[in-house]
């Protein structure tokens, strides 16, 4: 009788360990997914800010007198840096 009870107890313990491992794996997966989503949102916001800065800089250059412009009309690219990103 005692060996039967210890066998049942061992099965219950193994099941509990499996359940806890499944929960831990699910938590790990959810954490990695959330981290990826936050990183994507950060990079997306940064790219949007750089594009917005480029548009505002271009409009500013168009309103300046020709002699003060860094942006020359004619299609030549102007490379500059904004918040560590090259534009």
* Overall average pLDDT: 87
Strands across the major sheet, in which order? 1-2
Which sequence of SSEs, written as H and E, runs from N to C?
HEE
Structural class: mainly alpha
**Helix percentage range:** over 70%
Supply the number of structural domains. 1
* Largest sheet geometry: 2 strands, antiparallel
Count of helices?
Answer: 1
- Identify low-pLDDT runs: none
Give a verbal description of the structure.
There is one protein chain. The protein is mainly alpha-helical and 87 residues long. The chain has one domain (2-86). The chain contains 1 helix and 2 strands. The protein has a two-stranded antiparallel ribbon with strand order 1-2. The longest helix has 62 residues, at 2-63. 0% of the residues are buried. The mean pLDDT is 87. The chain crosses the membrane at residues 7-30. This is General secretion pathway protein GspK. Keywords: Membrane, Transmembrane, Transmembrane helix.
């Amino acid at each position: 009788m005692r060996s039967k009870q210890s066998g049942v107890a061992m099965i219950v313990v193994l099941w509990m360990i499996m359940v806890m491992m499944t929960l831990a794996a699910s938590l790990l997966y959810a954490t990695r997914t959330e981290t990826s989503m936050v990183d994507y949102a950060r990079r997306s916001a940064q790219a949007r800010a750089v594009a917005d800065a480029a548009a505002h800089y271009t409009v500013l250059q168009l309103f300046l007198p020709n002699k003060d412009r860094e942006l020359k009309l004619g299609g030549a690219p102007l490379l500059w840096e904004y918040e560590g990103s090259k534009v």
